[in-house]
Amino acid sequence: MPKRFRLTRRFPVAMTEDGYRKLRSFAAEAGLDEGEALSFLFENFDSVTDGEMLAMRLRMFNSELEARKR
C-alpha cells in the first residue's frame, strides 16, 4: 500500500531566481506543484544525485557564495 502524501512541515525558503526557475520548470514537467517537487527530490535524494558530482558542485557553489550575496 503506498504511503499517504501529507505535507507536514512548512518552512520559509530563500532561493536564487535561477534555482526557483529550475524548480518551477521541473515541477511543471513532472505535473507537481513546487512543494511536491521538493518533497520528491529530498525523499529520493540519494538516487537522483551523483555523489561525486554533488560534492564538486557544492564546493563550487560555496566558493562563489559570498560574492553572490553582495
From TrEMBL:
Originating species: Shimia aestuarii
What is the protein name stated in its UniProt record? Uncharacterized protein
